[in-house]
Design goal:
The chain is mostly beta strands. The chain has one domain: Beta Complex (Beta-clip-like), CATH 2.170.270. It is built from 1 helix and 6 strands. A two-stranded antiparallel sheet has the order 1-2. β1 and β2 form a beta hairpin. It is globular, with a radius of gyration of 14 Å.
Length: 104
Amino acid sequence: IHPHDPSQPNHTFYFHLDNGNVIDAKQGGNSARWVNHACEPNLEASQEGKRVFLKALRDIGVGEELFYDYALMIEGRKTAKVKKEHACLCGAPNCRGTMLDIKK
């Protein structure tokens, strides 16, 4: 069960770091925690030391919404039910239908 809102168990502000630690942006995070997911993002996450930055992948127009690929990591099998619980509705031509990290 999600520790912040059990009624929304798949809504998270967690960011997994390369060293296995997790940042909980609900606790002192900045406005970057509101950046949405898309399978065709205009940002990418970059870890530098203990900090995470969102960097532009291309020129971004004024007023254009910012997105990065969450590529959520979860324990256990990524069944159809689990993928649906983390559904992506971004509408990108290459949308994989889930915000989970799916290795091709």
